[in-house]
Amino acid sequence: MATAALSKEPQIGLTPHVPSPSDKAAFDAAIVDPDSYAHEERYHAIFKYLRAEAPVYWCEPEGYRPFWTVSRHADIRRVEFDNETFLNDPRLTLATIADEERIMALTGGNKLTRNLVSMDNPDHKHFRGMTQNYFSPKHMKQLEEDIHTLARDSVDHMAALGDRCDFAAEVAIWFPLRVIMLTLGVPREDEQFLMKITQEVFGAQDFDHMRPEEMGGLFATIAEFNAWCDRITADRKANPREDVSTIIANATLTDGSPMGNMEAMSYYLIIAAAGHDTTSSSSSAGLLELIRNPAEMQKLRNDPSLLPNAVEEMIRWASPVKHFFRTAAVDTEVAGVPIKAGDGLVMAYPSANRDAAVFDDPFAFRVDRANVRQHLAFDMARICAWASTSPNWRCVSCLKNCSPASTISSSPVTPPGPAPASSAA
Where is this region: Disordered (predicted)? Predict the structure, then answer.
């Protein structure tokens, strides 16, 4: 029986450019270095060491407020699900002190947007409930044929390109965006604009997508997106339809007052965030692993019913959301390590998804992995159901429209760079 190809497990001391933990300043700098997230061997060498030796690790990188790095699956799950002890709002993602101060100076607060993943209850529960019925499996079933049509169009486009296709650029980034636009009810002519906005938001420090001045460029992107949201909101107030934009435009807050401009813009943005970047990263990385592992590709061709499970494995493997923060509301402990009220904790999702205590042979890609749904590829406790499942059904819809006799090569390949991955946040 064919077995999954084993991925080489990175090791401190064997993986290049990974500093020794004995050099704390250099090791801490590596934890926040974007290069560690772009090069998977480096990232996994660091976090494999932390899982074994310091699963709750005090990190003090220069230029950042210090924080605890939580690297084990069980501990991340515990922090994630205890939403009375660990809060979203004070600090959601990793940012330099300089960037935090600039955001405070320009907004008077600690964030550029206020959306579901940055909220705590009761607001989180209320905002989640606004669109929960729309994104329920029952309602999404009504959109299934439209989504399959978009998927078939994507696969047809890929086939029309002949024997070579940049799947990430030609298919993976466009298909989820078009599904999002379907749910929002926005016109196809807005496609290029929305693609630019999502790439600039997620690539604020990516030289391929960033505007000048990094954080200043991100402010400009948010302002441009906000103007687009205002136009959509005004239209849906005057001309309501059966779409998510209408729900957002006419929503009210917990006190019954209309949703404000910032909350509405943030809601539009999190819908794009929940399905676009995550789905494109997972599907690109997943297809790459199928090509690298021809035995796994053959399993899917032999048994297409494995596809939903295979997509979960793609999501585990890619871990498109690299981290979120929590802040301790009270003095507590994690894995026996005392945590003070006000301390920040980073939940390292890719590390959780390579934890050998949960996943057998975690550095192997297996489309039939039995317990793959235990992955922590998203903020499962806080983010609403559509956000945590949307990459799954989008990937399934696209891949199921590929013929079992697809001409995609199943020969092992060694790409010139790392597998596609989301930003560190």
Answer: 1-20, 405-425
**Which two structure tokens, joined as six digits, stand for 290?**
């199928």
Which backbone phi and psi does 325 adopt, to 5 degrees? Answer: -100, 155
pLDDT tens column, 196-234: 888 887 664 554 544 455 555 677 888 888 899 999 999
Domain at 368, CATH number: 1.10.630.10
Structural domain including 392 reads: 55-399
CB 37 within 8 Å of CB 322: yes
Please classify residue 66 by burial: count the beta carbons closer than 10 Å to its beta carbon, then call 0-12 exposed, 13-18 middle and 19+ buried. exposed
Q: Is residue 330 included in any domain, yes or no?
A: yes
The whole-number pLDDT of residue 216 equals 53
The DSSP code for 359 is S
Phi, psi of 64 (to 5 degrees): -130, 150
Among residues 289, 231, 226, which one has the least CA distance to residue 261?
A: 226
Is 409 contained in some domain?
no
- pLDDT tens for each residue of 365-399: 999 999 999 999 865 444 434 443 455 555 555 55
d(CA 326, CA 93): 9
Q: Is residue 351 part of a domain?
A: yes
Q: Please give the span between the terminal C-alpha atoms of the chain, in angstroms, as a whole number.
A: 39
Q: Which residues pair with 328 in a beta bridge?
A: 86
Q: Rounded to an integer, what is the distance from CA 309 to the centroid of its chain?
A: 18
